[in-house]
Design brief:
Helices cover 39% and strands 6% of the residues. By secondary structure, the chain is of the alpha+beta class. The radius of gyration is 18 Å and the shape is globular.
């Protein structure tokens, strides 16, 4: 974890790489923060939470944007509105670090995320989208505001963390994930439509696993087949340092975050209470054979394909 902590910037952010530059985003910082131990890594976690709070949109309290709205740091695009993905991950990190409580998080879920839900599914929507699934941006942007399943999985994770698995938004997200899995859609072939803001379909697996780890067991019958459906796309590239992580809904530009990949490698995988569809196995020999994943001195979790 030392290699991860050494990459934290003066603002508290953990950087990502895009278009030949390093930028500082809520997404990567919150994702790394969730890998930090609240006791062992307290100073670094507090600085990360400071940066995350700077990403809160002053026009919509409780909603968070990709970049700090008032920040002056490196940004590829300025003026981005708040979105459901960053808002969900920001709240998960703030709860993880005990910076904010569940009551304001629930209020933000209802006031910020829930209004982005599809009350009616457009005819042009992909066949797996269900009523209640959320669009990505927390403001109306027409066709530029698609339903992304990875975004919905992160929203579902926040709902599970808050005890809101029965919320219509959580139910819509879960139903959409289940429909994609049951429909026989090849995750690799349909990756751009399943998760248009993500550059690698394995990120959808990470998001679903996050929701499954926070679920109290009630959504097990829904999430287990989703994890099993995504299992064939997993492999060594899922933890590669240079793996593409996310993008805009047109597929470009592409962001990478080696610091997040390192954090994932060094963090114990969560035990899923209701699924063995995708298990993690400790296999040090694998890293000796795969230079892209080698990181001497660390304990690694390697993705195991199929059932445990």
């Amino acid at each position: 974890m030392r290699a991860v902590l050494s990459r934290q910037t003066a603002t508290g952010a953990f950087p990502s790489e895009v278009a030949g530059m390093e930028d500082e985003t809520c997404f990567v910082t919150a994702s790394v923060a969730l890998c930090l131990d609240p006791v062992a890594h307290r100073p670094a976690l507090d600085r990360a939470l400071d940066f995350i709070e700077s990403c809160e949109d002053p026009r919509l309290p409780g909603a968070f944007a990709f970049y700090p709205p008032r920040g002056r740091g490196p940004m590829l695009v300025r003026g981005l509105p708040p979105d459901a993905d960053d808002t969900a991950l920001a709240w998960l990190a703030l709860l993880h670090g005990e910076r904010r409580g569940t009551d304001p998080a629930r209020a933000a879920f209802d006031a910020g995320i829930a209004p982005a839900a599809c009350l009616m599914v457009p005819g042009a929507a992909p066949p797996w989208v269900r009523r209640g699934a959320v669009r990505t941006w927390l403001i109306e942007r027409g066709r530029d505001n698609p339903v992304d399943l990875a975004v919905n999985a992160n929203v579902l994770a926040l709902a599970c963390r808050l005890g809101l698995a029965a919320h219509p938004v959580a139910q819509g997200a879960a139903a959409s994930l289940a429909a994609a899995a049951a429909g026989g859609f090849d995750p690799a072939r349909f990756a751009r439509r399943l998760a248009p803001f993500y550059a690698d379909v394995t990120e959808l697996w990470f998001a679903v696993r996050r929701a499954a780890a926070l679920d109290d067991g009630t959504l097990g019958p829904v999430l287990e087949p989703v994890l099993a459906w995504l299992a064939p796309v997993l492999g060594s590239r899922a933890l590669a340092l240079d793996k593409p992580l996310y993008c805009n809904d047109h597929g470009r530009p592409v962001w990478r975050a080696p610091v997040l990949q390192r954090a994932r490698r060094t963090t114990p995988a969560p035990r899923l209470p209701h699924s063995d569809a995708c298990a993690f196995k400790q296999t040090p020999a694998f890293f000796k054979q795969t230079p892209a994943l080698s990181n001497k001195g660390d304990q690694h979790d390697v993705l195991f394909l199929g059932r445990a």
